[in-house]
Amino acid sequence: MRVPLVAGNWKMNKTVEGARELVNGLLPRLQAVQGIEIVLCPPFPSLLAVHTLLKGTGIGLGAQNLHWEPSGAYTGEVSAEMLKELCGYVIIGHSERRAYFGETDETVNKKTKAALANGLIPIVCVGETLAENEAGQTEAVVTRQVMEGLKGIEADQAGKIVIAYEPVWAIGTGKAATGIGANQVIGDYVRRPVASLFGDKVAEGMRILYGGSVNGTNAALFFSQPEIDGALVGGASLKVDDFSAIVQAAAK
Ligand code: PEP
Fold this sequence. Notes:
alpha/beta
């Protein structure tokens, strides 16, 4: 049995004070929910404040990026070694980082290895753009991102990885994939390549999330699909009612 996971990617939103307000709004709604993992991923400046508020709640904390080196002359960067004092999770290879910050399959691979080496659970994002989708390249792109992003990782470590399938055309657009469509991509182009890299046991145990315009209304459609083990949520994770509804849907 794979324990469902719902992670909120706050992106570049919320000041420290705003982050405290959001967490204080969410906590009474999320704390009683059983049987799933919930993770909040605020921007770096709010990690400490959110860490303090989440202590003892069972709700996890994640960062949105990291650098693969442990320390050194990398101005503006944050290492896994620094994050592990506060976080249990880290998002890696989000499509916004791939599109705007030069993230590649190679850097995703280095970051994933650094996260695992420091006991952080990587949430590795994969997904095709609209142009790739329309050109019939979804299988090639998603499979390549999985194979290249996770290569060279030991099977016992690989089992800890979470993958989020996030079609770029669905992120922040309000145009979510269909449950059946996302389920097919996850089963055939994500879980199958994971099996070819690490074997069936690891593939069957790995949590694979859907992300892209998930909200309180459509979440249940995704969670009813056999290959989908939760969601990576962007915009709706900033709204108490919506995020709570998604979490409730995952717990059902
Ligand atoms: C995301 O940024 O990971 C995401 C899925 O965004 P949204 O839910 O807003 O589409």
